[in-house]
């Protein structure tokens, strides 16, 4: 347990941010899983919708500072390539 006042505050901030970041990461994983499941089914319209949702969730993760910009770009590119290959 920290003794210094600023360290105690940092600990509180860290715990709060950890919960917030975890919820965003979970949303990203869920959107990714739904995209992959939709892609496996093969319905083109559903794939496009799932891809747009996945990209939107990734962009919001970048905006909130949970994931880095290049990570989101890489994941969106790979998802686009997968959806293009299924079509």
**Rg calc:** 17 Å
Shape label: elongated
Mean pLDDT: 94
Uncertain stretches: none
Notes on the structure:
- The protein is built from 3 helices and no strands.
- The chain has 87 residues and is mainly α.
- The protein has one domain.
- The chain starts with a helix and ends with a helix.
- The mean pLDDT is 94.
Task: Summarize this structure as a short list of keywords or feature phrases.
mainly alpha
Task: Give a brief description.
This protein is an all-alpha fold.
Write the layout of secondary structure elements.
Elements: H1 5-41, H2 44-63, H3 69-86
């Amino acid at each position: 347990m920290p003794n210094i006042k600023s360290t105690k505050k940092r600990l509180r901030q860290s715990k709060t941010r950890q919960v917030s970041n975890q919820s965003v990461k979970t949303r990203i994983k869920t959107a990714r899983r739904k995209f992959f499941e939709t892609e496996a089914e093969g319905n083109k319209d559903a794939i496009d919708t799932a891809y747009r949702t996945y990209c939107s969730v990734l962009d919001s993760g970048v905006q909130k500072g949970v994931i880095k910009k290049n990570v989101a770009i890489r994941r969106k590119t790979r998802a686009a390539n997968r959806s293009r290959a299924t079509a």
